[in-house]
Predict the structure.
Amino acid sequence: MAKDGKAIVVFFSHAGDNYAVGNIEVGNTKIVADYITELTGAEQFEIVTHKYDGMAYNPLIKLAQEEARNGELPEYEGDIDLSKYDTVFIGGPVWWGTYPQVMFTLFKKHANDLKGKTVIPFTTHEGSGLANCVEDVKAAFPGANVQKGFSIYGHEVRTNKAKVEKWLQGLGY
């Protein structure tokens, strides 16, 4: 584990109407990303797209399914040089069995940036666990040292910081 090197948390989080937690101002994955930053000192890069802003849950999941089926790669704001980091935490909610498609846009742009780096996937979910996220990260970054990953229920993130702490301690943080 490259805990003494430079680390970053790269994530997508969806505020607004969410399954099981209702209408939230801060997305579940953002809360976990903030915990990771607080506990490890890692930097952050939030993948921001306004494509899903203000969407109710049911139309959002229909759109997410359609994007996944069509292999769409929605654009996001800004970018980051991931090659500068030793450890990259990659997080997002689970939508239709994997990360939202906007994360695959980032994966495609940075496919060669994580060779030899430690990559740690994490997810927020309401029953999907890690789904296919770890496999998808391994496929996107074949030269990376992809760890087993971590998942937490979205409805637990506001009250169960201890789960994130225990996971990070297990990684040596």
